[in-house]
Design goal:
single chain, alpha+beta, Aldehyde Ferredoxin Oxidoreductase,  A, domain 1, Aldehyde Ferredoxin Oxidoreductase Protein, subunit A, domain 2, Aldehyde Ferredoxin Oxidoreductase Protein, subunit A, domain 3, 3 domains, six-stranded mixed beta sheet, 26 helices, 17 strands, 41% helix, 14% strand
């Protein structure tokens, strides 16, 4: 399979291409695997994430743009300004498949433009254009104005808002209006390069090795989707069904993870609340499951607006975790974050931390009026969102992330700063599922639910939740499966919503491309991918000391719900880390051994 990338240097104002050798694609597949390999090879160690030496890599997957369910996504890879380590951030929308239609599997962005610019890609026409007139606009306004100027429909588009321009460490990239590459500060990296936006459109197609075989198999999977319970649930309420599950399980983050249930959310933030406000649903290209819910809400000024969402992570972090039960309020905060360009998870973490710090009398006197915010304060939340974007008052500290915020507040507040490696916890309390704690701790991009979905084994499966025993191997298994899915850049939901198993995705890959893998080869690649990315973080100075969790999870028993009385303990985390490292072939400090590097041929690079 040929893999062709655009190679754009904003400093030198040059545009070239890079061909990825077939043997590299064979070893890494694409997506997460290839992104990790490229970062390790192309990026010097210890560079400033917001300096011109950092690179941004945008990748489509090997089946992006085809009609394989869930293969509409693209991913952005860079060194994170939030964690100083590896980050990959995924989004759906038109950017990925339009890149493929234009003849490219992705692009590399290097350097820094002297003034604001945007990238224009129209088949083989690639230009770095002036964006001075777009600088300062929110992401929706910038994209809308740009598309109007182009005067042509069909462009995939992405833009940052003022948060990215102001280098907020958890700034996101907004694309196709309602989709985001959100985690790890990829929008801040884009802003540091003076890159405001990207538009791309292609008129080509996607090669398919076996069209009759593909059509027959795809027909079968679409039929499966029609009778799938998971697909039906997602069609009805989208990701809000997860809210129902975490509320019932007692792992819903509430008031900065002080509690695991939030009763006021019933019929408001859960699936019933979504259904009450839903006006339509939307699906990604080629997907039979329209899980994007279009809600109609009313903002604080009484204006009615629509948005796609809020998704579960947002209702968890900007709703229950702030003590807010109003879907209208969560939706308004969601829209502010999207248009201004910030990760809703990180914003929720920072604001909930300030709410608890204020509750405990820890806010410095000079910020008392601004940050004198209590759980449930909707107006204060909306003000703080803007203060973070524009770095006003205590928003200057919060814009650096919850870990930095705790370091400035001090007074032992780090014990309730809910993050791992600087990346804020998503909406699952690991005291209800200890394996989730391990998944957060060892994730290379910091606390992440997408590497191993927390409830899979310990809530809906038969794995005992309140023990460290066996969790290292169990979490490795979930990570390995996601390593392959994310190297394909396939949607996580397909595994249980359509459903499409990993073996069936491998069959799709054989039908669409010339890549044919056995189960054993895929397992080998999964290990290679995780170890490659680990080596990137090792080079940046990370080790076991960084694979940790906040004191609230380790030391404070859950006070309510089914998990009442449970906490992981440091000894429990250590047990899980030892088992996980051993299963990976890493030493006791979390460093891959020479034998493991040789086994996966990681010493061989592209250079």
């Amino acid at each position: 399979m040929k893999f062709k990338l655009l190679d754009i240097n904003l400093t030198e104002k040059t545009v070239g291409t890079m061909e990825i050798p077939a043997e590299t694609i064979r070893k890494y597949i694409g997506g997460r695997g290839l992104g990790g390999r490229l970062l390790l090879d192309l990026l010097p160690g210890k560079v400033d994430p917001l300096g011109p030496e950092n690179v941004m890599i945008w990748l489509a997957g090997p089946m992006t743009g085809s009609l394989v369910p869930g293969c509409t996504k693209h991913a952005v890879f860079t060194k994170s300004p939030q964690t100083n380590g590896f980050v990959d951030s995924y989004s759906s929308g038109g950017v990925g498949f339009q890149m493929v239609y234009a003849g490219y599997n992705g692009l590399i962005v290097r350097g820094k433009a002297q003034s604001p610019c945007y990238l224009y890609i129209r088949d083989d026409r690639v230009e770095i254009r002036d964006a001075s007139h777009l600088w300062g606009l929110d992401s929706y306004e910038a994209s809308s104005r740009l598309l109007k100027e182009l005067g042509e429909e069909g462009f995939g588009h992405a833009a940052i808002g003022p948060a990215g321009e102001n280098l907020v460490k958890f700034a996101c990239i907004n694309n196709d209006f309602y989709r985001q590459s959100a985690r790890g500060g990829v929008g801040a990296v884009m802003g540091s390069k003076n890159l405001k936006a990207l538009v791309v459109k292609g008129t080509g197609g996607v090669p398919c090795r076996d069209i009759p075989g593909f059509l027959a198999f795809n027909k079968q999977k679409l039929a499966d989707a029609k009778i799938s319970g998971g697909a039906a649930a997602h069609k009805r309420a989208g990701t809000a069904i997860t809210f129902d599950a975490t509320q019932a399980a007692g792992m819903l983050p509430t008031k900065n993870f002080q509690f695991g249930t939030f009763p006021p959310a019933a019929d408001n933030l859960d699936s019933a609340g979504v259904i009450n406000k839903a006006k339509a649903s939307v699906a990604c290209l080629g997907c039979p499951v329209p899980c994007g819910m279009i809600l109609e809400c009313t903002d604080s000024a009484g204006k009615i607006f629509r948005l796609e969402g809020p998704e579960y992570e947002t209702t968890g972090l900007l709703g229950a975790n702030l003590g807010i039960s109003s879907m209208d309020a969560v939706a308004e905060a969601n829209m502010l974050c999207d248009t201004l360009g910030m990760d809703t998870i990180a914003v929720g973490a920072a604001i909930s931390f300030l709410m608890e710090a204020n509750e405990k009398g820890m806010i410095p006197a000079e910020f008392a009026e601004q940050a004198g915010i209590a759980f449930g304060d909707i107006d204060g939340t909306l003000r703080l969102v803007k203060d973070i974007v524009y770095r006003q008052g205590i928003g200057e500290w919060a814009a650096e992330g919850v870990a930095f915020l705790a370091s400035k507040i001090g007074q032992g507040s780090d014990r309730f700063a809910m993050h791992s490696k600087g990346l804020a916890f998503p909406a699952y309390d690991p005291r209800r599922a200890f394996g989730a704690g391990l998944a957060y701790a060892v994730s290379p991009r910091g606390a992440c639910h997408r590497r191993a979905w927390p409830p899979a084994l310990e809530v809906f499966g038969d794995v005992p939740p309140y023990t460290a025993e066996g969790k290292g191997v169990a979490i490795k298994g979930l990570y390995d499966e996601r390593n392959i899915l994310h190297s394909l850049i396939a949607c996580d939901f397909q595994g249980f919503a359509v459903p499409v198993s990993l073996a069936e995705f491998a069959k799709y890959l054989r039908l669409v491309t010339d890549l044919d893998y056995s189960d054993e080869e895929l397992a080998h690649i999964a290990d290679r991918v995780e170890t490659t990315i680990r080596m990137f973080n090792v080079r940046e100075g990370m080790s076991r000391k960084d694979d940790t969790l906040p004191s609230r999870v380790l030391d404070d028993p859950m006070p309510d719900g089914p998990a009442a009385g449970q906490h992981i303990t440091q000894a429990g985390l250590d047990r899980m880390l030892d088992d996980y490292y051993r299963s990976r072939g890493w030493d006791s400090n979390g460093i891959p051994t020479k034998e493991t590097l040789a086994k996966y041929e990681i010493e061989e690079g592209l250079r």
